[in-house]
Give the backbone structure.
Amino acid sequence: MASSSIEIRNLYKIFGSRGKDYVKAVADGMSKTELNAEHGHVLGLKDINITIPGGQITVIMGLSGSGKSTLIRHINRLIDPTSGEIIYDGADICRMSEEELRQFRRKRTAMVFQKFGLLPHRNVLQNAAYGLEIQGVAKGEREERARRWINRVGLEGFDAKYPNQLSGGMQQRVGLARALANDAEILLMDEAYSALDPLIRVDMQTVLLELQKELKKTVVFITHDLDEALRLGDKIAILRDGEIVQQGRAEDIVMNPANDYIESFVKEVNRGRAIRVGAVAQPLTGGEAGPSIDADHSVEDALKVMLSASADRLTVMGPDARPVGTVTRDQLLHIIVM
Ligand SMILES: Nc1ncnc2c1ncn2[C@@H]1O[C@H](COP(=O)(O)OP(=O)(O)OP(=O)(O)O)[C@@H](O)[C@H]1O
Ligand SMILES: [Mg+2]
């Protein structure tokens, strides 16, 4: 069954006792600075409209204070909106009753936190089983399910260790195992990898991408790191001062930045790694033969294949191993250096 998308429509969040009174002013153009200086209210989110596709990874990116956490916390309604709606599976999350919300949070969403959020006096197994324990799943079953996920995130044999006996990367694996053990369709990850060392962080990105190939969760992943966003995101939305300034695929953002702000972000990006050949492939000409590459590989990967095969053209293969297009060496070099 394909998972539902999350549809966020006209969402505003204004922090302060009379937030609703200022929605119109903000909609009409009052800036975050003005709202704060003149009315002592803080603009959290302004007119957010985004579809978070089911079964894909959507990355929310932006600098500190841009509203990323505010946005993700609306999805399980840890924050109530000032106005707007969030539709999931036919229901508006913003209008759920206490009981509906409790069920929704427990059964359909799971969170992974930056600070891991592990319970220090529980071992790895008990931490990973925690969500299931809350749901009332019996001990034998929850431990079996938790153990399966501990193994899947690469922590086989660590069941009986305590959090303080683990490195940051391993603790984050436990956090991920706990979230996955819940079997929720929506995975909310707020800066989950931001506290990790760069190499461990890349490892964890790989773990997520590998699992996602099979699990196809609806993942909302927050980061302030563009490389991470480009690597993980099927879709990326960039926030600034509570507004989405651009949303699209990695390639849309890197190749067609919407304004100078985004441009300044993407200037330093390694385009050869950020852009996948599937996004730049040209139509098939019919006479395709010779070496090929999968559409989800990067431009850099494609150039390596060309070098080792002494080819100046590759056929790009789609998910069902059928040719979907072609790329040439000159075209790819142009993408990297222009
Ligand atoms: N409970 C609150 N009351 C008042 N203002 C708040 C509250 N929570 C967040 N804000 C403000 O809303 C804006 C967005 O904050 P948010 O925490 O969503 O940013 P962020 O993008 O997650 O930042 P960071 O990268 O530092 O985590 C900021 O200006 C912040 O000060
Ligand atoms: Mg935050």
